Task: structure prediction
Amino acid sequence: MPVRERAVESSPSTSATVVAAAAAAAATVTAEAAAAATAAAVSRAATAATASPSISTTSESNDLRTLFDAPSTMRGGYGRRRDLHYGGIGGHYGAKPATPATTAAAIASAASDTAGLFQYPTLKTPETFLESVNAAIARGYLLVERIAHAPERGEQEMKKVIKLFDRLSDVLCKVIDAAELVRCLHPDPAWRQSAETVYEELFSWMNTLNTDPRLYSVLKRVVDTPAIERGLSAAERQVALVFLRDFEKSGIHLSDAKRADFVRISDKIVGLGRDFIQRTTTPGAGPAHIMVSPPSRLQGLSPTYIQRITRTNKMGEQTAAVPTTGWEAQMVLKHVEDEGVRRAMYVASMAEDKSKVAILDDLLRSRYELAQLVGMESYGDMFLVDKMVKDTENVAAFMTALYKSQMPAVSAEVELLRKAKEVHTKDKDAKLQAWDRDFYARMVSARTNTQDHGDPINAYFSVGTTMDGLSKLFSRLYGIRFVAGALQPGEVWHEDVQRLDVIDEREGLIGTIYCDLYAREGKQMNAAHYTVRCARRVDDDDEVNDVAAGMQLRDGVELAMADPGVTIQGKPGRYQLPLAVLSCGFSRPSGSNSPTLLSWVEVETLFHEMGHAMHSMIGRTDYHNVSGTRCPIDFVEIPSILMEHFLADPTVLGLFATHYKTGAPLPAGLLTANEANRSTFRALELHSQMTMAILDQLYYSSMVGKSNFNSTGVMEYLQNKLGVVPSVPGTAWQTGFGHLYGYGAGYYSYIFGKTVTGQIWDQIFRASPTSREAGERLREHVLKWGGGKDPWACLGGLLEDERLCKGDKEAMRIVGDWGTARSSRV
Result:
C-alpha cells in the first residue's frame, strides 16, 4: 500500500508588530554571529558547487526549472502535444470536457489514441480500469492455486513459493495502488467512481486471501523445511516473514466463521476510513460565517477584504460575514486584534459535528473489535507487533521520557506567549486560550522582521528552482539526477502533472516520479507520496507454469501480465522499475513569467515527500513486497524526515536557493532571520505533535472497549491534562485529525523519526552535508534495502552501534536518550 498523506501545518505569519517585551526573553544568539556563520556556509557551498560540479548538466537544470516554473513553454517538447488526452474520456489539455452526448464510437476512438495512465493499457478509460480487476483476479487465482498445490509438485516448486507469493502481491497491488491514487487525484468523477469500485473489490479479495489457511500452511512449510530454508537469501526470509505476519495478524488460526468476520470487519473499516477522511475537510456543525458588527472589530485584516465582506442593512448598520473555513478562518485567528472575534471564530470552526464524531468512534470501535477477534488486547497492540517499537509499552515509555524532557522548553515558550498577551492586553492576569496561540505566536515571531531583508524568503524558492536543487543534492549524495521526461497521450490525469525520469550515473534509468504539485478542485490537498508500482525482478517469474496441466481457462478471460522489465547496468536479470507520484497543494503558476513561489513550510514539504520518493527509487529489491517504502511505518519516515535536515543546512541551500528574477543567492541575513523565526516555538510545535501522538495511542488502546467511550471526552481529558491551553467546550478538533485512519496507532512514528534522524544528521552529515561518502553510506545501509532487512540492523550498521541491531528495549532506550538529550538543547 502507498505511504499515506502527511498533513502540513502552516507556519506562523511574521507580519505583525513586534511585542518587544515578550520577544526579548526568547533571544538566544546575536543576529550578527548567526549571520556570519551562515554567510560562511553559503560561501563554502558556492565554492563546492564550482569545484565539484553536479552530474546534472546546465541544460537539464534549465529544463527542470522551466518544466515547473513555465510549463506552457515546454508543451510540444519531450513528446508532449497540446491536444493530448488526460486519461481517456473527458477531453484534452486546454479543451472543454466531453459532453454527455459523446458517442460510444467517439469514446472508443479517444481511448485508442491514448497510452493509458502511467502508460498502462488497462488504464485508458474508467471502463478498462474496471476490467483490469478481472484480469488481476484471474492471474491471482492461478497463483493461489499454484501455491496451494506446490507441495504436490515437489521441492523445486516449493522453492518458488516465496516468489509466487510476491508475484501475487504485485499483481493485486499494481491495480489497488493505482486505484488509491486515482480516487484521490483524478479530476473526472467517472474515473474516481471506477477507482472506488476497484479498490473495494480488490481490497476485500486481498483480505480473503490473508485468511486462506491453504496459503499459510504452504508458506509455513517452506520456512520450516530445513533443506529449503537453508537455501533462502536474507531477502527471501524477510519476504516470507512479512507474509507470515500478515496471515497471523489476519487471524489465520481462527475458525472459518471468525475468519469471515475478519474480512467483514476489515471491509467495514475501509468504508469508515474513506468517510472519515472525506469529512476531515468538510464544514462542521458550526455556522458557515461569523457575523461581526461593527466591521472595525476585524482590525488586523486587510481593509479591502473587510470592505468586500461587509453589508449594510436598511438601518445603516454594517455587519461583516467571515467564512469559518479555509484561509479566512486562519487569517482571523492569526491577525484579528479583538479576542472576542477570535474566540467566536475558533468555536465556530472547531464546533463538534456529531455525525463526524460518530464515524470516528465507529472506526475506533471497529478496529478494536478486529483486534479482539485475533486475540489482541487493543488495535495498538495488533498494529505495532511488526514495527520497530514492537509494542504499546515501548511507545508509552518513549513518549513519556520525551514529554518530560520537553516540558521546561515548552513552559518557557508558553510563558513567552502569555507575556505577549499580558503586554498586548495590559492585563497582568491574562491567561492563554486556544484562540490566542496563533495570534501571539505571529506577534512574537515578528521580531525577526525588524531588519529589512528585501524580498521575502519565498522569492528564492520557485518550484522549478527547488526541484532543480533536489536534483543537484541527489547528484552529490548518490550520483542520481532528475531529467524532464517525455509524456505520451493519456499518460497523466491532469495537465499540471509533470514526469521526472530518475537517472543513476552507474545504472541508468532507475524509475519515474510523477509530480502533481498544484491545488485544484476535487483533489485531496494533503501532501502525499504514492507508490503506484514497486520494483522487483521479473525475468524469473516462470509465468508459463502458472496454468497447470489440464487446467482450462474460461473463454474470453484475460490474465494480468507481468511488466517485461528492463536491464539494469551492472545487475543480472530484468527488473520492473518503480513508479511514484508526489502530490501537493501549491498555488499554480499564473504565467510563464510568474512561477509559483513556495513558503519555507512548502519547500520543507517537498523535500520530505521527495525523501519518500527517493527511498522508492533506490530501494529496488528483487521482491515487490519489501521494495522501497514497503517497510515498517516507524522506519519509512526516517529517509523523508532526514531530508528536512538537508533543507535547513546553509551549504545545501547554497546549491540552489536563488532569486526567481535576478538569480541572486539567498541572503545570509534573511536565512538567519528565517531560522530564528522557525526556532522560536520549536518546543511547542513538538509538544503539539506529541499530544496528537498520545491521543492516537489512547484512541487505539483497550479503553475503546468501554461502554462509555467517546472520542471527544478522551480528547478533552488529554487537552486539559497535557495541553498548553484548556479544551474549549463544544469543540472537537479530533475529527479533523485525518492521520487517525492512515496512521492509526502509528502517529508516534513522526516523532520517533525526528529523534532518529537528528542522530543520523549529527553523526553522518552535519560536518559535510553534500558528501558522496556520507550519501553512499546512507544508501548502502538504509535506502537500498527497502523493507528487505531488519530496520534496527540497518540503523545499527549506519551508526556503527551493535547495540541497536538487536532492536530490544536497550535499543529503544538508546533512541529515547537521543531524544531527551536533544530536548535539553531546544
Observations:
- The first strand starts at residue 289 and ends at 292.
- Residues 176 and 585 are 23 Å apart (CA to CA).
- Residues 1-54, 76-109 have pLDDT under 50 and may be disordered.
- The two ends are 36 Å apart (CA to CA).
